[in-house]
Amino acid sequence: MSEQRMLDKKIVVGVTGSIAAYKAADLVRRLQDEGAQVRVVMTKAACEFITPLTLQALSGYPVATDLLDPSQEASMGHITLARWADWIVIAPASADTISRLVQGRSDDLLSALCLASESPLAVAPAMNNKMWENQATQDNINILQSRDVHIIGPGSGIQACGELGEGRLIEPLELIAELARLMVPAKLQGKRVLITAGPTYEPIDPVRFIGNRSSGKMGFAVAKAAIEAGAIVTLVAGPVHLTTPNGVKRVNVETAQQMCDAVMTDIEQFDIFVACAAVADYRPEQIESNKIKKTQSANLQLNLKATQDIVSTVAEQKTRPFIVGFAAETQSVTDYAQQKLQRKKLDMIAANQVGDGVGFAEDDNALQVFWESGSEVLPLAPKTQLARDLMTLIIERYDAKDST
What we know:
The protein is built from 13 helices and 19 strands. By secondary structure, it is of the alpha/beta class. It has two domains: 173 residues, Flavin prenyltransferase-like (Rossmann fold, 3-Layer(aba) Sandwich); 197 residues, Rossmann fold (3-Layer(aba) Sandwich). The protein has an eight-stranded mixed sheet, with helices on both faces. It has a five-stranded parallel sheet with strand order 2-1-3-4-5, with helices on both faces. α1 links the parallel β1 and β2.
């Protein structure tokens, strides 16, 4: 039997009003074959195309159709489902449903569920080709993608109306293959992962500091991906204004030394260390106790001293975790990354180009990942998905090293 790529993943399948609703039956069964636990939510319009009883028989659970179901709302049924789901997959997704998601509607069960959930959302469109090509639909798709909603399909071919073009729901096997790519393997159950994120601020005086442009978005996305993979995650965060992913223990720091101290506390207890933070390489040798006043002199001289190299300090430990470093470079990305991999004795390094609107503070990024015996390019993608792809690589290399 082939590996179950979605073993123990909890997936809510949303079915909306489309002639392609019949394909949801095959999708539910094939998700279960992949090891997933499946619950089904149907809109009123979907019930006109396929009966809830069919999907109930296939999933093994009652199908939810009503927002105000007296048997469910005592425990807030849509909230319960929202918290239960690891993923929500809407297939087929009608043009109307896509529009409702964009508007943030919550007057039916499926839209309320999506609004209440922090789980990843995948949408597989299905509609007439002219409806798909309509600028309103395309604008809605772009908005959903900007919110990190995964759009899967549509396919192209003869449609139920007899017309030819894009808009068909992609086949269940294709849909599952894409979902498997998007999901992080749940292979870090019980493993402890330590991640650093964001910049550090090195004070000059009580008002000023030396810092950098890191937003922390990549590190927070990696923390979320590690949680999705089942890990116990600690996130040491520099001064950023980001929401902590559910289930993550967050430790806030400001300076490089504070980050180093936080990392080295119980470092031997961690299985994987991902050094995603953009830590300052230098700090002022002397911190003024009062604000430095502007004088007639045109120049101000600061003497700087090196900060402690956190990732090298971890690598020197007798009992050390699997170490993943990051390299943000403005030039010669490959050369500098490979040199850093060797020099700092890392297990892996993820390198990216920064500057000129790339890397720092952006929502999308691309990575070149290197390890001793290989490399892989992770193409430009939203940082949330890039983090999942990186975590899949980390798991593969961690398992390979652990088996040697």
